[in-house]
């Protein structure tokens, strides 16, 4: 039991406590004149330079769950799990120019969330509410999944118990600490911790990819062992170290659709808006793929686990296996205890950075687009910051409750749904940055159509491996649409295409009927503003409240 | 255009910065990694990696090179 893992537990705990201390100290790092402002607490003063942004956004996008779930997917299905690599390659050139526009318009108008932008652009609090609620619903299960990442590590170290409370106590403590320093330091805490997290991850992965292949007979035999395993197990026709004719479309649409969705997540946008200027964003689009390389190598840990003969630990229900423990078990078997402890700390701390940023992003959405819009219109910046801080606590309690009281599988299902539903904000947020052609009413109609179709498609997908009838994955068989083929496609892509189609058609109808389209609160010039612009002033000097009004 | 006087010079050059024919290059690393015919094969192997794996990892370099190139070519010259 846990006594066999004492060294690992000590190393893990020491690093974890060190990072927690950093989280509290972070409030004084690059200290603001006045912390009681949402720009300071929720966006770190909008002042982060290239390096901080790189660590922050990198630590934000490449989460602990990714580090645990991607190799687990490669372990189980092979090539299909490698979609994370093309996904994180195409994302950066795709958003290279889009994010700059978002940054500029947000800084001119003091927008904190994507919904703030939508409200002003389309003159529609309802559409903004739709975007905000979609963002919060998509983010919540993502936070809960970070706990799944920590739990996989704790389980491997033998820190489990019979009762639900004993099993979850370490996670509850970890999240209580996280909640406390996020409350105090805001976005500065994850920004500072991200340095430690990413350094640990890079060290662990470098050691793993240089050392493990030597122990396991070289890369060639690792791939051969994986191929042999997939050949031997015949129950899943779509596994293997290469794609087959039927899952190529799924691979490509999943990579592309996930890339479209990534920067619609509120937590990604929070990281981007916290940067100092447009140059920082552009340089980061070139530098962030360094994480993709790490992610690709981490994915291959799944094959190393096959070659090393790793057996995942049992899952929560009898007879099932918890695939997420594949990588922790591999480290436990192959590394000396102290280094396995470092690796576990990397994953555990890796969960804290995104969890903090996600809870901040969700809290900002609630504060700006629900509290200020519907509950207290004249909220001062200090009140906004306060509401956000309290909401971030509520969000984390909710995430812990999800894991403690519900089956973790439920969070995984919700995250799958989250990727599909966040895509439905694409026409309003991403296309909205370029065109105001779509009518606000049509965008709401398109969103509803995309949501409805997406949910229905996900509901239809069974998973034979886990014997579940619904929400078994994101690969929708085209034969269900009546096509005579075995090919599958990513649900999100189909849903967002229908969303766009409905939005376009309804726009034409509403225009023909001369329904009022509202007034654009932004000017074409807003999308090119940069640091130094007379109306782009970072931090508390700017009056965030007066911003939504355009110049006369 | 309703912007006030002093902003005009800065915004005009920043607009030039956003609109550049070089930006079309960005489509290369978006399209190429999504064509399975290029990478979905075992041979040739490099350091034991099947083509599926080494080529897709190499696409990361393609992405970095393209975004860096576009950034350098479209950078505002002179100031900052």
From TrEMBL, chain A:
Keywords: Membrane, Transmembrane, Transmembrane helix, Transport. GO terms for cellular component: plasma membrane. It is a multi-pass membrane protein. Residues 522-552 are annotated as: Disordered. One of its GO terms (molecular function) is transmembrane transporter activity. It is found in: Membrane. Its main location: membrane. The chain crosses the membrane at residues 6-27, 48-68, 74-99, 126-145, 165-183, 190-212, 249-267, 288-310, 338-366, 387-406, 412-434, 441-459, 489-510. NCBIfam families: monocarbox_MctP. Belongs to the sodium:solute symporter (SSF) (TC 2.A.21) family. This is Solute:Na+ symporter, SSS family. It comes from Micromonospora haikouensis.
TrEMBL record, chain B:
This is DUF3311 domain-containing protein. Pfam families: DUF3311. InterPro entries: DUF3311. The chain crosses the membrane at residues 21-41, 53-74. Keywords: Membrane, Transmembrane, Transmembrane helix. The keyword Transmembrane applies. It comes from the Bacteria.
